[in-house]
Amino acid sequence: MSRKAVTSTVTQPSNATLPSDICPVCKRVRYLNTDMRFLINPECYHAMCSQCVDNIFKSGPAQCPYASCSKTLRLRGFREAWFGDLSVEREVDIRKRVAAVFNNTQDDFETLRDYNNYLQDVEDLTFALVSGTDDERRKAEARLVAYEEKNKADIDRNRKRGREVEAARKKREAEAEAASKARRLEEQREEEEARKEEAMLNREVMEALARGEAGEAAQIQQRIMAQKKKTIARLNGELFPRPWTAAPKRTGPTEDEEDRNKPYDPFGATDLDPTRYEIHETYENSWLDPARTRDDHRVPGYSVQEYVTRAMFEAFAGLGVAIDEEKAGAQRAVGIAGAKHAAQANKTTGIISKTGGDVFG
Amino acid sequence: MAVSPLVDGLPNPAAKAVSSPLKNAASAQASSNGTPVPAVAPNATAAVQSAALDLSEQMNEDEKRKYIKGKKLGEGTYANVYLGQVRNDPSQLVAIKKIKINKEYTEGMSPDAVREIKHLQELDHPNIIKLHTVFSSKDQNLNLVLEFLPLGDLEILIKDTANVHYGVADTKAWMGMLTRAVWFCHENFVLHRDIKPNNLLIAADGEVKLADFGLARSFSDPYRPMTSNVITRWYRPPELLFGARHYSAAVDVWSVGLVFAELVMRAPYLAGNTELEQIELICKGVGTPTEENWPGVTKLPEYTIGNQITPVLGKDHYNALFGTVGNEGVDLLMKTLILDPRKRITARDMLKHPWWHKDPKPTRKKELPRKSGGEGGRK
Known about the structure:
The complex is a heterodimer. By secondary structure, chain A is mainly alpha-helical.
């Protein structure tokens, strides 16, 4: 809402409802002008037909044609009213404007009480603007402008945040809508299929009857039905699960859905950070220094940290491995699996046994 | 001979005569991999040398008899892969990788096999292929019993543009599994050194598993050079192309970045035919490594760049090519393709990147696209 419109809310509109047939300014009637539209200007909420607006304001700002009104109006400010009752239109405009300025959310307050007090304040101010006396309205207006001036940064921030939340909500809704639409289509298709299948079965029965001898009609029908019963049962079960035939209903989401809704864990629920020691940023060691500085190591990215991490791992790899437990575990799982099991049980990570040094360079 | 009762009833007594160091080595691998040893150990040390060999053969035989070898699944440069079944539970399938006898290494095992066994037996993670056991068969062939992964590899999916369609959520799920595997390797001080889409196999349940540890090695000690001739060329980072001998886990991260790019483009991003061309492609597709963006790079032994210098490409370039993965995805990709390995993101930090939590959520593994027309899975 522009700054222009702001000052206007101070005035009370004189006529409460939008005229339906006769323009109060030029007295033209809808009977002769079927495409008549009534416009208002939020400066004073005085309604007039679009032709009057064109005629009076086309050449620039002019005074409102209502005898009692001294507002200067511009063509740009005119618009169609959303509500028939212009006092409602005005109240909504005011509320929009106040909400745009007082746009804090509950998260901005420490306690619920603070938030409620704030809401109360805002509502008092709004009420004063909407239906207060002239004096009250002027005061409220002054407070509003002062608040806006003072908290410009906060207001902008909240507005931005609000827009983001709104965008997220819209996206979510659109997604839900698309999903439900897809589901509906799928259901429709399945239903169609089931119907077709049943119709086909019926037709087959009829054809068989037509071909067969009269005396054996019942028999034929029985045979075909028995043959097809399974198909029908399957289709029914699949496509129209009925409470009395279907398996007991699960409560809550299915396992599959739960699996689907689980947040994605890029690490695959594996944590390999050492639990029994810490890796420091640097280790003082004169033997390692050349590897840090020499060009043939440094430039192609040789990482002393990787070496150090490994040295630490190997130094402490035996910690927390209890041979007795491992032996017992070996009955169930041998080899690597067993070692891993033992490793997990003892909170050591990764490789347990390291066999020999490197054979190949 | 009579010292150890275990020797009695050996299925093939003649084998005693041909026992060799190789057999010894192979069964030693097997024992560290889970064959029951304990009761035997003191006995073996007390026994004479020949008895110990017989014992190892006995153990090897036991291990071998647990599996039935089936049809051939494929042939690689240094191994054949067969389908296998567990004797006690034929519904359980395994892949048996039989290492070919390599003429270069007649008196020992080929280093690829050693690397593979050495590292796979230590790594146990859902996104890394599992090594069940190792045994040697007749002719002293080495057999690796691996997890059976029936659904092909990522390369098949990437290439089959006509039949396989996938989106960002699927890419994210695959990248997640790959990154976790690489992270786990690095946390356990193993460099994979051959990450590429066709080493990313897919299990029956859709889980991607990092395989082929034939070039893997553990992190090197300082002053101990490593070979720079590793990683398939298209996925090889600039430091290796420039002949670096001391490098870090960052080499694998570069490969992961290029797999990411390939998943999105459905074509290799930097596919050079020679090493020189590869360097050229990196200069054009990522940026020319210079002293500004990579201090010291000119001192690397095989530093060569064309005469044209491309500044490091910005976000716009990547957005145009990989924009479908979203802003965060492009950011992650760019961080994996940083020229200077010291500034390149680590696998751990990759997993901490906000991209994983942005929309869309990664597809669940059972809903991931699968290769078309493939034979049925395990179940």
